[in-house]
Amino acid sequence: MCGIFGIVAHSPVNQTIFDALTMLQHRGQDAAGIATHHNNRIILRKNNGLVRDVLHTRHMQRLEGNAGIGHVRYPTAGCASPDEAQPFYVNSPYGLALAHNGNLTNADSLRKELFETDLRHLNTNSDSEILLNVLAHELQTIKKKDPTAEDIFASVKSVFQRCKGGYAVISIIIGKGILAFRDPHGIRPLCYGSRETLSGTEYAMASESVALDALDFKMIGDIPPGGIAFFPFESHECITDFPSEEEQYKNYAPCIFEYVYLARPDSLMDGISVYKARLRMGEKLADKILQKIKKEDVDVVIPIPDSGRTAALELAYKLDAKYREGFIKNRYIGRTFIMPGQDIRKKSVRQKLNTTPLEFQGKNVLLVDDSIVRGTTSKQIIQMARNAGAKNVYFASAAPPVRYPNVYGIDLPARSDLIAHGIDEDAIARIIGADAVFYQDLTDLLETVRDGNPKIQNFDMSCFDGKYITGDIDEAYLEKLEKKRGNKVGFATDEEEYNNENPLTLL
């Protein structure tokens, strides 16, 4: 899970990209970066840390140009070294900078192919660098100084043939324009919009619509599965190559976990309001809970902030129970789900949340969260509720049990680390210390999201059902993936700043 943003404008874009990345900060807190296009050069600043910590005044002043891209990252492939922060750059052909959200499932074979056949060297373990070099190789086949949009589209279609998995990409082609495309299944999100200025039309692309809204861009729509958009610097227009609507919806399979947890509730993704989808999740979950307990068994419904809040609102309404904010969040602590290392996650939960004992004392409490992944956080939260005086503590998940890893850009851990893998709800309740656990049914979750856009018939739900839509994931792949993923993530702290005479300037 990462956040990406791109813009082609008529005035300096450094502050606009900075603001957009802060709107997308929830998608990645490990690293941030901006690349701008100025005088046929790429000016690049990236490092580990939050947007505000990576991009200081001195960097912003040097990020000149009227077009650029930005990225916020949390690591799913590779490691957490600053070398793997994005955007990435390669000098041939033309000079390319790229920001990528997602994961390539055939990264290992592509790495070998790039070295042995394409004669390209990779300097990191990031699959984003692999994707950049595949794109560069396919653009190299154009063999024109001034490629047309059609030439570029043909190259991207070759990328689609070679790269498997989930990916949304925004890339600068030096002197030409900004390129945006989305994998053939549309697993990872990407939308685009425009705004009118005195100098003319400006275009922007983003992982979530909130980044466009905040900057007064009017959303045009989502880039569809297998869709490509090109925004030339000279003409300031939007040139698209989208599959037919029939072909789009035949392949459409966006990640359903975006609607459960990853996206902001005020985002619109693939025509679906995330907020409304989460309200429907609460409604469906309430129906299931009422099959097992009575309304009178619940005195108060308390959400786990922030992503459990929307579902909890509708759930409380249907249960005729009081909705209360029993946990107060320290907003200066990042999301525990995307923190590297179990020990860090355990420590930060208690720092992030504190209870309001008044809402717990002597009450039967129903806690509502978006999902239960490892169960570590849930267990600590339930214990906090009991320590605050709760009589009975029930725990509800707006999502079904997470039983399988995600391979398309979400760092859901090894199966052995997923609390729901191989056990039932009663066993989960005993492990996390709840009096009962209630999970959303998968069919109900699918219905709550699909209601927002009935044209989309399929979603990637692999973390719930183990069905991987790209068709290239088997047991051997999962075992290899689980060996790669672990709790130890390396962080480099030294920062080297330099300038050189190639078309790239690093800040």
Task: Give a description of the structure.
- By secondary structure, the protein is of the alpha+beta class.
- It has 2 domains: 3-253 and 492-506, Aminohydrolase, N-terminal nucleophile (Ntn) domain (Glutamine Phosphoribosylpyrophosphate, subunit 1, domain 1, 4-Layer Sandwich), CATH 3.60.20.10; 277-329 and 338-454, Rossmann fold, CATH 3.40.50.2020.
- The chain is built from 17 helices and 23 strands.
- An 8-stranded mixed beta sheet has the order 11-9-10-1-4-2-3-23.
- The two termini are 25 Å apart.
Which key phrases capture this entry?
Glutamine Phosphoribosylpyrophosphate, subunit 1, domain 1, 2 domains, 31% helix, six-stranded antiparallel sheet, Rossmann fold, 507 residues, alpha+beta, eight-stranded mixed sheet
Write a brief caption for the model:
The protein is 31% helix and 23% strand. The protein is α+β, with helices and mostly antiparallel strands and 507 residues long. Strand 20, helix 13 (376-387) and strand 21 form a beta-alpha-beta unit.
